[in-house]
Amino acid sequence: MMEILKAFYGMPREEEEKEEGQLNSRGLWLLRVLSSESPASWRLDLHERYSLLGDVARGVSVNTSPDALLPLDRLRIRQESTYVTVQDESRDALSHLNIGQANILSVTSFLSGARIESYDLLFVPGTRDAAHVAPEVAGDAIRRIFHDRMNAIATGNARIALAASGLLRDRVASSDCLQLTDTYIERARAWDVETRIVRDGGLWTANDDPETLTTLAILYKASRHYTIGGVFPLSVWDKYFGGSDDEPHRLPPTSSVPASRTSGDDLAAELGGLSLSDDSQEIADLIFHFAIRLALEGYVDQCNSLLTSLFIISPNAMENLGAPCMRPIEFVWESFDARPAVPWNSPSREDLDQWDREYRNIHHLPPDEDREDILESIKLRISMSDDWLLTPYTLSGAVVMALDAGWNDQAREWILKLVQDAYEIDSNHVWASRIARWRPLAHFCKAGIVAEVTGRTPEQADHDAEAVKRAINSLRSSSTTSRTEQRESSVPRFADLAWDVLVPMLNVLKWEQHETLLKPPASSAAIRDAEERLGITLPEDYKQFLLVSNGIEFMPSIDAPGFRAIEALKWETAEELGLDEFRVDLGCKTDPGEYERLPKMARVLVISDDSEETVWFVDPATAREAIHVLRDEGRSDDVTGQPGWRAVFWANYLTELEWLPSFRGYMERLAEKAEKAK
């Protein structure tokens, strides 16, 4: 009689490494990504895929229900798998599973003939009758097959076999709909009876009702894109691992962020303390983002009146603000068909289409054939794990995908959450960066969904626009305000501070549960070892920081990333990070022809921790190449700067890179924000 054992699939690593476009995912998944347009492709074309992967194996029993293999249907590989049994290799015994001409092997045959290390997933489906399962025998076979680079999935009563293998000793597992004896209760770190699917590292456990099995396949597919955390759902993390320094980054609760509810009177008062000659960039920034918020609320005429007033006193304002502002407002004007006379040319439809594509690519939005699978995984991440970060897509990208798929009710639900968060945070840039930068969202907001949340009435919009216009018209460029004096006096103070004074100032930005942001200092020897390993000499200001704190924690209140320890530094390719669309323009304004001549981002040295915001260094050789191109185009040394390391800040909600003057300058900017946060 055949008993439940195992299932796994993958391909020999040597063959995998030869296939262009494949994703290794740190050795946990070796399926080929078949779409070259999107690194987030979920397409699993069976004919091409089977020819690449070779045998795909799934362990079964004569007592295995066909429904137990529902994940294979979702992955579209039921008849392309090789089925492994404990004893019997009879095809007739497994005919009820609808596996066609799939290969069937005994465990003994498989272990003697297969290269176990070349497989990545061990799938153990449950059986209809626990009496047919010998947990210790199955557990022994699982233990012989499993290796550190594998994932293992056990469903239904097969979770007992996984426990018998000893693999759950330090893991949390789902015991939903599972009867456990004391013997097996003690063989896991913990059993969670309330959660139907649990992932703890590479081990997945779940009940085996059909809905859960389908959900399991969706989540597993998502995990190969790093979109599912190492512990899932987050409620399991909170319950069993809470308080660890390795806690996943989450958005702070909106209730912890004071909302300023900026009105026109508030903005007018702020503008009254600024000088056009000294604060032109800040003035343009404040007015633009208030105007675009009015437009998203449905008040495009009031928006346009503010921008027209701004361009009268500062004709070059949009040039200074750049593409992160111009593209969103052009999308808004397109949606309302209300573009005013402004001091730059109207983009063509082709330009708008290109901008839309670029932003979708930055966030790895999928091709049409993959969209619904990804949307299903997003719904599960939200419902099961309260995960609203939705990396790499973001909540904004999820709304766009829902609109593309015709899921209008879902899109409305999610955009209400998006607008509510933006309203609570009320950051100056959030309306453009999270909403208007997405072309479909700019169009969606025309229906008035933003105003439903913010509550601004037409009368209030008129009042606010007039208040800001009066402030714009009263701006004068001659005086230096007290605010300017304060800023000028503060800059030298930060610039003169020693590193061991500057860095501890950031402690006010820490998570409440952390005692400090800082880490123990790096040794000079550790820095030298890293430089030798990387084949470089690191920037001096960065090394001085490491000698004070070898890395730093995430700073949630200002959305600033943490920094890695020196031992974690490594070269990464821009393609791996999804940054290969960017050119090394060093922050210079360029026309399309100039931009194409600049070098692409190649290898980069990421110094920040994994989060939405990233800081990295571009190596001196690439910077030197970019400087050469820019100088050939007539840029002066003052504009391009000198050869050397260049630091870059980027967030996945931005369309352009922010080139930092130096790492030290970035840290001084954080210190200034920390001082304001006290």
TrEMBL record:
SMART domains reported for this sequence: SMI1_KNR4
InterPro entries attached to this UniProt entry: Class_I_gatase-like, Knr4/Smi1-like_dom, Knr4/Smi1-like_sf
Knr4/Smi1-like domain mapped to chain residues: 521-669
Gene3D superfamilies associated with the record: 3.40.50.880, SMI1/KNR4-like (3.40.1580.10)
Pfam family, one: SMI1_KNR4
Name this protein carries in UniProt: Knr4/Smi1-like domain-containing protein
Organism this protein belongs to: Fomitopsis schrenkii
